[in-house]
Specification:
Helices cover 32% and strands 23% of the residues. The chain is an alpha+beta fold. It is globular.
Length: 77
């Protein structure tokens, strides 16, 4: 089974890399978390967002974005 592919933008004004990356690592230890610009600047300027396994998930805060991303995280069998 493929590991989870999670990406976050370090330019996003609605998330802090110091907090979002550790939260994601704790939640999904097997994930490959990539940090960098996702060329998703329109929504990025207005929302916190996480790219998880091919899906963009956006919300008002990073915690809400994590909550919305949960259904798209692949569980270990």
């Amino acid at each position: 089974m493929m590991a989870n592919d999670i990406r976050v933008c370090d330019k996003c004004k609605h998330m802090k890399m110091k907090t979002i990356v550790p939260k994601l690592q704790k939640l999904v230890p097997d994930a490959e978390i990539k940090v960098g610009c996702k060329s998703y600047c329109g929504p990025c300027a207005r929302y916190a967002f996480i790219f998880v396994n091919g899906r963009y998930v956006k919300a008002a805060t990073e915690d809400e974005a994590i909550e919305k991303a949960l259904p798209f995280i692949k569980k270990k069998k």
